[in-house]
Specification:
Layout: H1 6-18, E1 23-24, H2 27-40, H3 45-48, E2 56-64, E3 71-80, E4 85-89, H4 100-109, E5 120-122, H5 135-147, H6 159-173, H7 186-205, H8 214-217, E6 242-244, E7 251-253, H9 254-257, H10 278-283, H11 287-290, H12 298-308, H13 320-336, H14 342-370, H15 373-386, E8 394-395, H16 404-416, E9 431-434, H17 437-450, E10 456-459, H18 468-474, E11 482-483
Parallel strand pairs: 1-2, 4-5, 9-10, 10-11
Antiparallel strand pairs: 2-3, 3-4, 6-7, 8-9
Helix pairs in contact: 1-5, 5-6, 13-14
């Protein structure tokens, strides 16, 4: 099962508290406070003015790393102004206190409400987490139990119970969403394609229709319309300037070709017969081709970043604007400076993306057909374990109880994990844990040494990943198996 993102957790928490007389903040609030606190020793009033006035405030947090900027685990702080109490909800029971530095920061943040003087910090009874991916679900459930005043015990929840809670929270999050905002069904998509086909047949008969623009075919025409719709983008523009390629005789709008309005040369070449190698072109690029010396100034770059990057709590700019609009546009503009028209630059960009996606899909298909060696070997090792007699307890990898999609997500998480290996890492899903040393050695002797299977092994319950020196070595060298045993 995938992790919940910050946005999902923040949304669900806000949704739950909205139904009561409580209020909530977001995971990014503490990050912003900490930045100001570290920089100047106080948090500016500007960052505090949006803190709601309420008898109870819910603050979800991301923890697990040395800096509060990042983390791998969700916890919840509940500020109860009636009882003068901060209640901590942590499904792994790893963060049951608040450090002196964090408490000093919180007193500064809530200085207008008495600075949290004479407050106490408690950890109420709460459900316990036994995996490394469902902390967001436990946080949302803690908020729901707190809001609805449900009393729970310190009961460890199974993976099936977590799945049930996940479905519950997901269904609640989308209950008020307009059905029109959901992706089209297969029937709706088929209907839309039929409608689009009829519209195109009509457009082809109109010589002034934008469908004749070469950029239309790659969905890069500035005057195209949404599939199956009659309304054009920039519909207020009634007259278009057209240019014909002298080689292929196809047409482009001036804007789609990247030509200025006063362009009046005799010949135009769209790049139809070119087959440029974008990799070679990019290898030849120099820094001065993108930024001039006069532009490489700290204050200039900072101003640019402030204008385009999204900072939580400071504006409505979508952070995807950078990767999905600005960066591609920069590449297109730069390619135009290398004697390519805008249409050809767009084509190069699209073909490169398709090429990379094709390589990724081919690799994924190959892995799917063969099956992950990690999963195959772990399953075989688990089958062997079930046939053996062990003197102590043994815990098999959780990943073996997952469906194919969940296994794929767990493998991807393991491949992309770049932090240290601890009890929160994705490796936990793949680990065989042995209570007795003789059982562990028996497993290693046959599974690892004799048949050389790829497995992650740990000896000693509640002591996984403590061999930090050994783990750091294993991350740097190619190995047949990961032995995460404590030394």
């Amino acid at each position: 099962m995938p992790w919940l993102t910050d946005d999902a957790v923040n949304y669900r928490v806000a949704q739950l508290v909205q139904e009561s007389m409580c209020t909530s903040l977001g995971t990014f609030d503490f990050v912003l406070w900490h930045r100001e606190w570290t920089k100047s020793g106080t948090v500016k009033d500007q960052l505090l003015k949006h803190i709601p006035l309420s008898g109870k405030i819910f603050l979800p947090r991301i923890v697990g790393h040395s800096s509060p900027e990042t983390g791998n685990h969700f916890i919840l702080w509940v500020f109860d102004f009636t009882l003068k109490e901060i209640r901590i909800y942590d499904s792994l029971s790893a963060h049951k206190t608040i450090s002196d530095d964090d408490m000093a920061l919180l007193r500064n943040v809530f200085r207008s409400s008495g600075g949290l003087q004479d407050w106490t910090v408690t950890c109420p009874p709460q459900w316990k987490q036994q995996d490394s991916v469902n902390c967001g679900i436990f946080l949302c459930s803690a908020v729901e139990n707190e809001v609805q005043k449900h009393s729970v015990t310190a009961e460890p929840l199974t993976l099936n119970q977590c799945r049930t809670l996940r479905v519950h929270h997901a269904s609640q999050m989308i209950r008020n969403i307009d059905p029109k905002d959901f992706p089209c069904t297969l029937q709706e998509t088929t209907t839309m394609k039929d409608k689009e086909k009829k519209i195109q047949e009509t457009d082809l008969k109109n010589k002034d229709s934008s469908i004749h623009c070469l950029a239309w075919e790659i969905r890069a025409c500035l005057f195209q319309r949404a599939t199956g719709k009659m309304l054009l983008f920039h519909e207020h523009i009634r007259k278009y300037q057209w240019v014909q390629c002298t080689t292929c005789k196809n047409w482009l709008h001036f804007q789609c070709a990247g030509l200025p309005e006063d362009w009046n040369e005799k010949d135009f070449f769209c790049g139809c017969s070119l087959n440029p190698d974008i990799d070679n072109i990019l290898q030849s690029v120099k820094a001065e081709d993108i930024l001039t010396d006069s532009e490489i100034k700290t204050e200039v770059l900072i101003t640019r970043l402030e204008n385009i990057l999204y900072v939580p709590g400071s504006g409505d700019v979508d952070q995807h604007m950078v990767t999905e609009v600005i960066l591609p546009e920069v590449v297109i503009k730069w390619l135009q400076n290398n004697n390519l028209c805008r249409y050809q630059a767009e084509m190069m960009l699209i073909n490169t993306v398709k090429k990379n996606e094709g390589l990724s899909e081919a690799q994924e298909e190959e892995d799917t057909e063969k099956g992950s060696p990690f999963i195959v070997d772990s399953q075989a090792a688990a089958d062997w374990c079930r046939e053996q007699q062990f003197s102590g307890r043994i815990t098999l990898p959780v990943v073996l109880d997952m469906d194919e999609l969940e296994q794929a997500e767990a493998l991807e998480a393991l491949k992309t994990w770049d932090e240290e290996y601890n009890e929160y890492s994705p490796a936990e899903h793949f680990t065989f844990v042995f209570e007795k040393k003789e059982d562990y050695e028996k497993f290693c002797l046959y599974i690892v040494d004799k048949i050389q299977s790829i497995c992650i092994i740990s000896f000693g319950f509640h002591s996984m990943f403590k061999g930090s020196d050994e783990v750091s070595i294993l991350k740097r060298i190619p190995i047949k198996y990961w032995n995460l045993t404590s030394r």
